[in-house]
Amino acid sequence: MTRVQEIPLNATMQPMPLRSGERVETFRIAYDSLDGVRIGGWYCVPRASHIAPPYPGLLIVPGYISEPTLPKSWAKLGYASVGVAPRGKLGSNQQYNPGYPGLLVDNMVDRNTYAYRGFYVDAARAVDFLLGRPEVDHARIGVHGASQGGALTITTAALRPDAITCGAAGAPFLCGYLDAPRLSRSYPYEEITEYLRAYPERAAAVRETLNYFDGINFGPRIRCPMLLYVGLQDDVCAPETGFALHDALSCPKEILSYAGCAHDAGGIWAAPRVQAFLAEHLQPAGALVSA
Amino acid sequence: MITADIEAFWDAIDAELAALPAAAELEPMPLHSTDTATLYFVRLTSIGPYRISGYYSVPRTPRPAPGLLLTPRYGSVNHIPDFHDRERYAVLQLIHRGQRLADEPFAAEYPGLLTLGIESPETYVYRGIVADCLRGMEFLRAQPETGKIGVQGDDLALMTAARRPEVAAILASDLMLYRLLDAAARSDAYPVEEINDYLRAQPERRASVADTLRYFDPLYHVGRIRAQTMLPSGDDAAWLQPLRDALGTHAQEYRITHRGAEDNDTLDAWLAGQLGAEPRSRFLQNV
């Protein structure tokens, strides 16, 4: 991250009238990240006529096969919101495009070139984008996502403990991911099972690499309050890995668990809890406007 | 009820498909094959002509397996079929035009795909996408290892089954094209919000958008379906009632609990029962 901070952000914002409305203005954004890769995303900000600035910032991080979120609904609540597309996703795949399946195992034998080295940094750099916006209150920036978005919530909060106020992570992927493939036959972890079946002699190198990227190992670096939520029958990200992450956190923390739920992680019940948690720590004005 | 203009529109698409050889290519994917199933990357020609693709997995058993077509999700990426499905079914995950691995020369944008060419039924991108699904069903039907065939997905599953009577069972959820203008009036969530964005920018096109969507709304097609059709419903049970009415006795209803594992197990068991396969849970209980 020291090296990354020396890279100029070169942020650009392109208004998107088609995706804007009376209450929210939407921009397509881009900025530079590690290895000179240009990262894209969406930025949705309340119109001043709807809610006056400053706004809390909210970074929405995407799932493994999801498109980057266009976070208009969060902006309506009063957040200046970024939906980031880390490298390889649509909008950020001109220079790096390992595909799906592919991303999870791309250069998995080498921590210096493994896919998630740049991917994690790309998400964390979105915090710098928010810090560069005059309408954003730099003391109130949160991060939220589920699945791979849950993993990126953890790594971003850990890599930017100076800037992140709180984080909410659902069904966190990439936690305990030396063990997780043994607990699942579902993609994306199945990619690792397939890779090691084809190249069993590379297991030691894979193990060494993944230790550098395991979300559980990022946990102790997090200082802000964190909300986790998991499904107790999650076939994609086994609940054991979510609880292991929870154990590794030394920050203020809470974990919600939902019986009978899978990778949805009890979303219908968790979503209002997430919204309340973010509002408690980030204090958006949207609730006052709606009242 | 399907009207004569809609029927003629889709008959013409069937004729276009019939005039084009599928020119199927199957390429083994050993990295993603297992002891119990062989995976192939499939390429097919659909209308346009356009080269589409898919993942086709065949169980390593000597007897025919039930076939299962998984219609594409709304998004750029489709997963390889699930391990448990691959052990039970000859399963094709179709990849429609514009999605990754079928994105040359056309790469779909998200958001954007849902309104692409929506000015008329002839230009709407879903004309080609539904044809892609029909082509996928034709491919699956032609494979000697497939027995009964089911289809699982969203509106595309219903549209495919309506046009291909060989389908034995349908599991359709998370509908997007069904009553889309009504849905857009109730929601600001993407992808439905794409319609609101479009009509906010071009309100004078509402009538033509409504006319286009009529051709692609499964409500006007499911009257042709003769297979048992499972329609999981959310908390607003009345939302799907017109569709159930159009399906008549073929409609099966399940009220989702929002506990994803329980819902998935219930629906998996229903589909497996229809196709003569064993039910499976994706969650590994004893590891």
Overview of the molecule:
The complex is a heterodimer of chains A (291) and B (287). Chain A has 291 residues and is of the alpha/beta class. Chain A contains ten helices and nine strands. In chain A, strands 1-2-3-5-4-6-7-8-9 form a nine-stranded mixed beta sheet, sandwiched between helices. In chain A, a hairpin with a 5-residue loop joins strand 2 and strand 3 (38-46). In chain A, helix 3 packs across helix 4 (148-159). The longest helix of chain A is centred in the middle third of the chain and has 17 residues, at 115-131. Chain A is globular, with a radius of gyration of 18 Å. Chain A starts with a helix and ends with a helix. Chain B has one domain (4-248, 256-275): Alpha/Beta hydrolase fold, catalytic domain (Rossmann fold). A nine-stranded mixed beta sheet of chain B has the order 1-2-3-5-4-6-7-8-9, sandwiched between helices. Chain B starts with a helix and ends in a 12-residue tail after the last helix. The mean pLDDT of chain B is 96. The chains are: A alpha/beta (291), B alpha/beta (287). Chain A binds chain B through residues 17-19, 21, 65-67, 70, 72-73, 76, 90, 99-101, 182-188, 190, 194-195, 198, 231, 233-235, 258-264, 266-269, and chain B through 30-32, 75-80, 82-84, 100-101, 109-111, 188-190, 193, 197-198, 200-201, 257-262, 264, 281-284, 287.
